[in-house]
């Protein structure tokens, strides 16, 4: 059973993914794979340098510089995705060779990338919009304008929830933990 786990930025998806891990469920994390691809020696560094030299510094993709570049030139996003998505897909395929009754694919852009077609069930991590915004801005890694640009590229939370088999309310961690336990019991 392959469970797709998704949720917009700041919804608590990474924390929720850890809850699945804590229950012994193998979790593949798309963001972790991208970080590895962008790190020094990562498979995406050279092709990204060829496409966007200003976004590569000290042998690694500078995510902040890349985010700024995409904000200035929205067409650049398709180029980035064309470079990164094949590497991510190959890593996901390798992970799916694991032998387990339930696995989780933690994919922030599950619907946006069409990856929802590759899972058996979908869980969406959700929280009220003001809490979402506060969580992201408290990180201190982006401005409100950058957050708004990211949200504009993501499917609205209400649409994600409408397409979900499970909704995990991450307003508080006890509620989220209980929802994760119910899902694991049902699917695992």
From TrEMBL:
Signal peptide: none annotated. It is found in: Cytoplasm. Its EC number is 2.7.1.24. The keyword Cytoplasm applies. It catalyses: 3'-dephospho-CoA + ATP = ADP + CoA + H(+). Keywords: ATP-binding, Coenzyme A biosynthesis, Cytoplasm, Kinase, Nucleotide-binding, Transferase. The keyword Thylakoid does not apply. One of its GO terms (cellular component) is cytoplasm. It is an enzyme of class 2 (transferase). One of its GO terms (biological process) is coenzyme A biosynthetic process. ATP binds at residues 10-15. Pathway: Cofactor biosynthesis; coenzyme A biosynthesis; CoA from (R)-pantothenate: step 5/5. InterPro entries: Depp_CoAkinase (IPR001977), P-loop_NTPase (IPR027417). CDD domains: DPCK. GO terms for molecular function: ATP binding; dephospho-CoA kinase activity. Catalyzes the phosphorylation of the 3'-hydroxyl group of dephosphocoenzyme A to form coenzyme A. Belongs to the CoaE family. This is Dephospho-CoA kinase. It comes from Jannaschia rubra. The lineage of its organism: Bacteria, Pseudomonadati, Pseudomonadota, Alphaproteobacteria, Rhodobacterales.
